[in-house]
Amino acid sequence: KAMRSFASADVCIISGSLYHFHDEVAVLFEKMLAAAPVILLSEPVINLSDRNGIIGKLAKASANVNGNVQHFRYTETTLLQTLDTLSVQFNITFSIAGRVDKDIIILIKK
């Protein structure tokens, strides 16, 4: 998959969809950081798709891209581990700005 460059901005915002890019998260961050000095990330870390039963099945079925069910989801631990790796790779800092329902809000700066 090829990602195009992003237009210049003051802030890049990614909300609830980083998990779709988990295989290419470094490429995505490279593009976002080339476009803006700040990234605002809101990502669900408590996921209905992790549940057993009908709720989990419905949640898994509703989260698909191009007909492919997305099995990967971030937990708070895996998201923070990913950001730790990216912080070394791209010389960025990040901090938890808050939590809203199932999402963690993270401010990332060059």
How many β-strand runs? Answer: 6
Number of discrete helical segments: 3
Order of helices and strands: EHEHEEHEE
Oligomeric state of shown chains? single chain
C-alpha-based Rg, rounded: 14 Å
The chain-level mean pLDDT equals 88
Report the β-strand fraction as a percent range.
25-35%
* Helix proportion: 25-40%
Spatial separation of the terminal alpha carbons: 26 Å
* Largest sheet entry: 4 strands, mixed
- Structural class from helices and strands? alpha+beta
In the sheet with the most strands, the strands line up as: 1-2-6-5
Poorly predicted runs are: none
Silhouette: globular
Describe the model:
This protein is an alpha+beta fold and 110 residues long. The protein contains 3 helices and 6 strands, in the order E-H-E-H-E-E-H-E-E. The radius of gyration is 14 Å and the shape is globular.
